[in-house]
Write a structure and sequence with these properties.
5-stranded mixed β-sheet; 5-stranded antiparallel β-sheet; 388 residues; Immunoglobulin-like; binds ligand MTE; binds molybdenum atom
């Protein structure tokens, strides 16, 4: 497995270099294709769509998805205060607050505490059709469970909330009843004691068999498997255990959804935190080998097992797609393929939808009409392609 990912990374860096030299070209760079395979082009990608809108923001070109793991060089990246440079030598992960033994770990000390693998994918809660679903990726992470570090510190019973701070920070305005206070804050997120000690949260120091990249939070990041990206604090330098709820901007205010829900026949307006990923599937690429067309896509969710993925062509019936590739982890994205028979020349619309074992079905855009804020857009993603 380790060898495989190394080979993939070598291939991946080749692709990344190829990308750099053609960044100014209109449209997207085409993925590597198997012998005899041709791309069926999407007609829905905006002409000026740029996968590198800013130096520290990168989208994944989802047409390049061709295997379970996203190469490090292609992994999407987004954050609020740019990419801080964290010096590996002087780096320490501090653990403070309501703990028996406050801690300060170097990266080597953390590496010596264990080496566990976690296959997990995530998307930014702001990912949507607008970014051609490019704020998404799947990785083979290595590190240690958060619980290992918390147990070393010994969380006291008063410790009800565990707060995670990144090294990145910036000036933020905190508004209170018409007054604004400008204060310097670090990116911070929190988990309840119960979640933090559940064994699920993970501290990653490597991605796809190599040390974490600066883009992905080197030298250490938190991963909350099955949750949206905002939970996965990068450049993690400080864990603070406290009694009260943490109400920092990126915990309590920024990552919220306002949505109307029918409860006993009454419309209730709810504001909820961004947490577990909502069921999403998306068609990523369409290829053709002689007369056989193949549709490939991905599914991401909170880890609940899936019942089906289906594809609809134009106004035809929904037909089953096949899960073609997944890793052993329930938190990995799942790739699916659909063999599209009897495609006729011209423009066609393709859309996928996924259903989980709890019977939850990926909504349509119109099902999400009562969601007022733009985060958590897991709507079905209709695509148009041109068959020649
Ligand atoms: N320290 C820090 N961690 C952060 C953020 C941030 O601004 N600062 N942004 C979060 C958000 S909103 C997302 S979507 C993910 C993106 O992770 P990636 O860049 O590895 O893809 O990082 C999360 N972790
Ligand atoms: Mo995000």
């Amino acid at each position: 497995m380790a060898k495989d990912s190394t080979r993939r990374e070598v291939l991946g860096s080749g692709l990344a270099l190829a990308c750099l030299s053609v960044l100014d070209m209109p449209g997207w760079v085409l993925p590597a294709l198997a012998q005899g395979e041709a791309i069926v082009p999407f007609t829905d990608i905006p002409k000026n769509f740029n996968t590198n809108p800013r130096p520290t923001v990168r989208y994944l070109d989802i047409r390049k998805i061709d295997g379970p793991f996203t190469p490090r060089e292609q992994f999407f990246t987004t954050q609020h205060y740019g990419h801080p440079e964290v010096d590996q030598e002087s780096f320490r992960l501090k653990v403070s607050g309501h703990v028996e033994r406050p801690q300060s770990f170097s990266i080597n000390e953390l590496r010596n505490m264990g080496h566990v693998q976690l296959d997990a994918g995530f998307e930014c809660s702001g990912n949507s059709a607008r970014r051609v679903q490019g704020l998404v990726g799947n990785g083979r992470w290595a590190g240690i469970p958060l619980r290992t570090v918390l147990d070393a510190a010994g969380v006291k019973s008063e410790g009800q909330e565990v707060v995670f701070f990144g090294a990145d920070h910036g000036e933020e305005q905190v508004e209170f009843r018409g007054r604004k206070f400008s204060v310097d804050q670090q990116y911070g997120r929190s988990l309840s004691r119960q979640l933090a000690l559940s064994g699920e949260p993970f501290l990653a120091y490597s991605l796809n068999g190599e040390p974490l990249t600066r883009h992905q939070g080197a030298p250490l990041r938190l991963l909350m498997p099955g949750w949206y990206g905002a939970a996965n604090v990068k450049w993690l330098t400080h864990i603070h255990v406290q009694t009260e709820r943490y109400l920092g901007k990126y915990q309590a205010r920024w990552y919220r959804t306002l949505r109307g829900e029918m409860i006993n026949g009454e419309l209730k307006w709810k504001e909820t935190e961004i947490s577990r990923m909502r069921l999403k599937s998306a068609i990523a690429r369409v290829t053709r080998e002689e007369n056989q067309l193949k549709v490939l896509g991905f599914v991401l969710n909170d880890g609940t097992p899936l019942r089906s993925v289906e594809v609809q062509v134009d106004d035809g019936p929904w037909r089953s797609a096949t899960m073609s590739s997944s890793t052993s982890s329930k938190y990995s994205w799942k790739l699916f393929t659909y063999m599209w028979d009897h495609a006729t020349p011209g423009e066609h619309t393709l859309v996928s939808r996924v259903t989980d074992v709890k019977g939850r079905v990926q909504p349509t855009a119109s099902d999400l009409k009562t969601k007022k804020t733009f985060l958590e857009d897991n709507a079905q993603f209709p695509r148009t392609v041109m068959v020649t």
